[in-house]
Design brief:
- The chain is of the alpha+beta class and about 120 residues long.
- About 35% of the residues lie in helices and about 25% in strands.
- The protein is built from four helices and four strands.
- Strands 2-3-1-4 form a four-stranded antiparallel β-sheet.
- It is globular, with a radius of gyration of 15 Å.
- The model has no long low-confidence stretch (mean pLDDT about 95).
């Protein structure tokens, strides 16, 4: 069964093109390392909740947009191996230095699908 890494981050609206450029550069690297699919979604209907919400989870500021992303892998083992490769790849390090958002506020996690229709 597939394995999914999910991400939520707040990106300044003015840096949308820089984010898209970064994502478009990183996606082929993720695939090179074993990903089967990379999806980036720019928020356009992300409501504020009463107790919690996406914006609060990443401490989004008024001028920031929430981005929801995921990367699919054939298995957790492939994802773990990909993460190891990423940590040692100078191209990924260079991309990490160009992030158009505050990476400290990114939330992420690995997920095993339990329903996929």
């Amino acid at each position: 069964m597939n394995y999914v890494d999910g991400f939520v981050v707040a990106v300044p609206a003015a840096k949308k093109e820089a984010y898209l450029k970064l994502a478009a550069t990183a996606a082929p690297l993720f695939k090179e390392f074993g990903a089967t699919r990379v999806v980036e979604c720019w928020g356009n209907d992300v409501p504020e909740g009463k107790l919690t919400d996406f914006r609060g989870a990443v401490k989004a500021e008024a001028d920031e947009v929430v981005v929801f992303s995921w990367i699919e892998y054939p298995s957790k083992a492939v994802r773990d191996a990909a993460n190891e490769k990423m940590m040692n790849d100078p191209r990924m390090k260079e991309l990490g230095e160009q992030m158009p958002f505050d990476g400290k506020r990114m939330i992420f996690g690995g997920f095993e699908p339990i329903l996929d229709e």
